Amino acid sequence: MNRFDRSVIDTLLPSGASPVLPLGLLNSGFESFWEESKDDLAPQLRVAFRLGLFAAAWIAPVLVRRAPPLGRLSATDRERALTAMERSRVVIFRQLVRILKTVAALHYGAHPDVRKAIGHHT
Amino acid sequence: MSETFDYVIVGSGAAGASAARVLSDVHPSIAIVEEGPAVATEEFEDRALPTFKRLYRGMGAQVTGGRAPMPVIQGRCLGGSTVVNSAIMRRLPEEVWREWDSSYGIGDAVPYQDVLTASGEIERELHAEPTPQAIWGGNNGLLNKGAAAVRVAGGPTLRNTKGCRGSARCNLGCPHGAKQSMQLTYLPYAQGRGARLIPDRRVERVLMRGARAVGVQTAAGDLMANKAVLVAASAVQTPGVLWRSGVRSRHLGRHFQGHPGMGIVGLFDTPVRMGDGATQGFEVDGWRSESRIKLETLALPPETFFSGLPGVGRRWASLMAEFAHAAVWVLPLRSQGEGEVGTGWRDGRLRFRLDPRDVQNLRRGLRLASQLMFAAGAREVVCPVDGLPDRLRQEDLSLIDEAAADPASYPLALSHLFGTARMSGRVNDGVVGHDFRVHGTENLYVVDSSVFPTNLGVNPQLTIMALARIAVQRMLS
Question: Of the residues B251, B255, B259, B416, which is catalytic?
């Protein structure tokens, strides 16, 4: 993952986003997960995820009238930009955010610390 | 290299295994060929990604094309979708059979009494029982409470389980072997009588000699059939197998139907702990005839729970954090839309489009389900439709009525698949005849839900098993 990708991942779920879930996506090991799992994912999901990262980094800022890439913006503006993409009238933008979240959740929801924090016993 | 059997069955799910169960009592020389792997109970994991990879077709990422793509959920392993479903056993509703009879003329081919008789036998063999209250847990208990409060018909689901502990892991494969799915029941039964299970073998096509099916071709060699070939590869795979075998019909792959569905989340002040209790132990059926909607509980692992929540960043995290206080209920819809499973150069491409009436029914169902959540004591409801607030309070319910008419605004998934090789007594109106035999062939049968002329509005595994049983009985007679 490059720095543009990382800024998207960090915005999707930053550290300290909730008192219950202090772990952010990046420091929960998402990059390692992606490197290890990307070849396991269905090809269309893998491609859509990469497309989602690109759109979030370079198009989402424009939706809130900021210049891309996403990583240049403040944390508040980054979250606003991804929210705008998630709520966009353009169906494909909404779907790309869903795909980003689906892949992120496959990692984050399986993390032992996260499961413990939300009270899910395994 | 080829091997020879009396019968070759393509697919080991509800249909193929049920056909093998009946056939093996009479003719033990059967090969049951499955594209997916054989996975033992002790290998089932409680994490979604490895499970999707091993047990689900396309890792659960098989989607319909078009502007409002939907994931299409199917098992792909020995036992098929019965390994990853929630074990719900529902008989064919009589009103659906009447529709089959009046609109499609197949009432004589599949008499309702025969379906009921077969269903009763299967219920006994697979130990169908109402979900015991002791394993309802919070999620199922709340739907019971909500249904009682608004006085809508509902009850514990009838499930084929034996000794279920309520571990809420049906969809990841039952870790205790309590779910009486096909790889634990009918397939070993047939195997014990001499049938051979062949996992990890994809059938490319049925080998035809004139109008006669003589075997199947797989990458690892041919499997020859002296008497007949039965295709039970699912409504998505069966059309491709038939097409590659030279079957031509303008109905092949068409009339693709299913039950699109989505979930809502209720947030409660007291813990719900949906991880404790049966995955889908309670259902509400009182709106089905009017709105074509059924309501069911569905316990989700954190991965799929998280992915269905709205929001990014802090909004997303705040909802994730409520996992222990969340109840999840889903609404499968008896859609009036149809789609297509591609054949030939479009092999396997899926298309499905909701009918505008479906969106109206869905909105109505979401509103009713949300009312039930509040009646059960929910503080807020998450109804993840684009354009709605992340969290709805009771006074916000009217917003659901005004939700978008665009199907792409609803995060639907398609399950329970039907119709792509439908039955009809008239050659020009279907792919198989009243005896489940492909028109124009002597001994090629389709025994899965591809032959159903419509969707059912209820969970189909029992009806699929019952019709497969009837098909084999008819073939043998």
Answer: B416
